[in-house]
Each structure stands twice: as C-alpha cells, then as structure tokens.
Amino acid sequence: MKIAADDPSSTAPGAAPIRPIVIAANRLPVMRDNTTENGWAPSPGGLVRALLPMLRSSGGTWVGWTGTPDDPTEPFTVDGVDCYPIDISAKEVELYYEGFSNDGLWPLYHDALRESTYDIAQWEAYQRVNERFAITLANIAPPNAIVWIHDYQLQLVPAMLRQQRPDITIGFFLHIPFPPYELFSRLPWRNEIIDGLLGCDLIGFQRPKGATNFAACASQLRKSDIGENVIHNAGHRTELGVFPISIDFAEVEEMAAGRATRKLTSQIRTRLGDPEVILLGVDRLDYTKGIGLRLRAFGALLESGELDPERCVMVQVATPTREAVEHYQDERREIERLVGEINGRFSRIGLPVIHYLYQTLSYDDLIALYRAGDVMLVTPFRDGMNLVAKEYAAAHIDGDGVLVLSEFAGAADELTDAVLVNPHDDRALQESIVTAVEMHRHERRARMAGLREQVKRMDVQGWADRFYAALARAAENQ
Length: 478
Ligand code: GDG
Hints:
Blueprint: E1 21-27, E2 30-32, E3 40-42, H1 46-57, E4 61-65, E5 76-78, E6 81-85, H2 90-109, H3 120-140, E7 146-150, H4 157-164, E8 169-173, H5 181-184, H6 190-197, E9 202-205, H7 208-222, E10 225-227, E11 230-233, E12 236-242, H8 249-257, H9 259-271, E13 277-284, H10 291-304, E14 312-319, H11 326-346, E15 354-357, H12 363-372, E16 375-378, H13 387-395, E17 402-406, E18 419-421, H14 426-438, H15 441-457, H16 460-477
Parallel strand pairs: 1-4, 1-7, 4-6, 7-8, 8-9, 9-12, 13-14, 13-16, 14-15, 16-17, 17-18
Antiparallel strand pairs: 2-3, 5-6, 10-11, 11-12
This protein binds GDP-alpha-D-glucose.
C-alpha cells in the first residue's frame, strides 16, 4: 500500500463544513474559569482553536471528560460549542486513563520504551469508558452527522458507535505513533483494538509509517483485504490517510511579536546571566521525550570542554504529567538526579548551568522562552509529531535560532532544515549540539527561514480542513 501526506492544496482553508460535526476526545476543550458566566473557558492550544471555527459553523458539539473524577456536570455551551461531559469515576481514572491508556498503550505505541502493564481490570475499564462515549455520541449526534474521534484512549469507540448509528460518518485521528506488528501483537486485546478502529470511514495518522503499520496489523490479525490507502473488512470500507498535525502559526507569531513578550525575553536573558548561548528544552516530563539523554549530552560536552559553562546555559522546562504512573515517577527522579549532578559539577555561585523548571508555564511565558532560546533541543526517542519544535520556529520572528530535532519525531518529516539527529547515538547527539551552537549566522538564518516557511504553509487550520475534507470524501466512497 502506498500512502503519502495529503496535498495541502486539496481544500480551501477554513472551508465551512455542511454536515453537523461532533468531536470526541478524552478531554473537553475547556477549563474551569470562575470569571466567566457558566464557569468554563476554552482551553488554550492549537487543536482546540483549529476545530472551534469548524464546530461553530456546523452548530458543533464536543464530547469528553472535564478532567475531574466523579464530576456529573450537565451539558453546557462555551464559545458556541455544546459540550457533553462524560463522567469518569476516580477508579476509572486509575484503570482506564492512568492504567490501560498511559501504562499499557502509551509505552507499547512508543517503541515499547518501557514495560507495558496488561491488566484485565484496566482493559474492562477501558471498554466501559469507551462504551460510555459511544452511547453518548449515538444519543446526541444529529442524523447524518460527522463524528471525529481523537486518540488512543478511544480506539474502541468507532465500531461501538457504528453498530448503534450506521448513518453516521466516523473519522479517527491518532496523535501518537501506531506501532509495527511485532510490537502491537503483544497486546492481549489486539484484535479488539483493530476491530474498534475498523469501524471508521477514515483513520488519520501523523506519519506514513503509522498507516502502513496499521494496515499490516489489520491484514495479519484480521485477514482484512488491503488496497491502496483502504482496508475492506466485514463489508465495511476504511480509508487510511496521513495528516501531520501542526500549530496556529499566526497566533504564535503574533504573541512572539508583542511588546510584553519582547520585554520578557530580554528579562529572561538578563536573569540567566546574559550567556552567549541559551540551550532550551520544553517537554512534558515523559520518558519518550529523551530529556535525560539531552542532559547527559550537555554534561558530557561541558566535561570535554567542547562547551564552555561560562558561555552556555541550558533551560529545561519539564511539565508535570501522569504523576500517578510509576514510570513517570522514576523518570522524574532520574532527571532531577542528573540536573543536580551536572549543576553540582559545573555551576558557579548564582549561575547554575542548568535551569530546571518542573512546572507548567503560561503560554505567554513559554513563547518568551522560545524567543530567548538560541538552540532548541527536541530529542524524543519516539514522538507522534512534537508541536514544541513547530512552536519554536513560529516564535523565532527574528529569523535566528537553531532547532536540533530527533529523527524519531514525526516533525522530522517536514522540518528538514533542523539539525536532524539519532538521539540513541550519544556522540552524534553531542556533535549535533556543538554544530548548532557553532553554526554560522548565515546558515542559521537560512535554516530558520526554511523551518518557518514550512510551519506557516502547513498550519493546524489546514490540517483540520484536510482531515475533514478527506472524511467527507471517504463517506461518499463508502
Ligand atoms: C501528543 C503527542 C503530538 C508544554 N509545556 C508547557 C506547555 N506545553 C505545550 C506545548 C505544546 C504541547 O504542550 C506539547 O505538545 P507535543 O506535541 O510536544 O507533545 P505531547 O503532549 O506528547 O502531544 C505528540 C501531539 O499530541 C499533537 O498531536 O505532536 O507527538 O505525543 O503545544 O506548547 N504549554 C504551557 N506551559 C507549559 O509549561 N502553556
């Protein structure tokens, strides 16, 4: 099967959908805000912003969890979007969310970087919560609606929904990689997951490999008939497509250009002791992101003298995430040990060589930090896309700055003007950091221009429009 990323010119940007659209995702696109009338405000983030216009123009609806366990909130409206909360109990958060989704599927789908837990109670909770989503969707979706389901927490929903509502067009987008057969086949409930997804009219992946891996699994495990970009199974047709997700380029650019950001950026530089080079890492504290590896590479370069601790400073933001899961607790301990070790060895009084923040920053602070970063280190072992890499390019309105990017991030397919590196190769990673630090201004500017051009051309609005258009076409082909 041959799968290429969809042609960006295939849809007019912002094309208004004509059929009612319903989104389903683990989380609702809102956060509690006691300054608004109904206590809710839209969450920040490109995905929400990309989907909101589409939802508003179709009288759209979003189904998801509020983020608080045992929270029987009634449906409400935010910014013209009807939100239908799915109530998830504290026990289900532990089993469905922290357990099956984040301690079973997450490591398995990321190259089995950590041991997965396969637990029947967790699987049952995953089924139960998926069923709850499917029932809600079946009850609220208008006739002939388009339902767009997001991510690995909800892979059973498509088939469950199709069974109840065959009139509906169902699309699914997987934000993380889909693993090769050799790994996926470890999952005790592998057939159920494939069958769940084959309930779709269209499944979207970040990279071509995700789509080919899925097709190989469907063929091996379910003996499905595989055609070009299409799978026939039990009389139903499922198209596969590649839709690399992106960011709201214009918004990040505008924020980066603001006076407050400029002021904050220069304050950051001053507070860091006006170093010549600021190296920056921004990640959820997740073992897939390669934070420890990057710290070790930085430490080794200080040790060998290839980087000078009086000229270079590293800032690492590690956003708290999934703190109840043991692999995340272990990862945090290891990162904090490394930060202590390297700082102990190379810092001077009042001038740590690594500034480590285990915090969630405001988006404004984050954009100012991107602008301050001379070298951005994005070194995951495996990542569906990685939006940080794209945000960094969009924020660098000065046209300067170097991105060091892992080949194992989906973003590497598009961001070919980055310094691409295999993060498993210690020496190559160290060399790529030195290359970035020492890069000549002309080359830095040429590469940054290429990165910015690419992210601008393929922004999140285009992503949403292309997925929607492909889904509508898949329904016609059914
Ligand atoms: C999954 C896939 C795929 C981070 N720290 C702070 C903060 N962030 C924001 C960034 C960025 C987002 O979080 C992280 O997105 P990534 O794409 O880098 O990674 P995941 O969270 O793992 O996302 C990934 C993505 O889904 C989309 O499909 O790209 O591969 O794993 O937007 O800005 N935001 C704020 N404070 C922080 O401290 N405000």
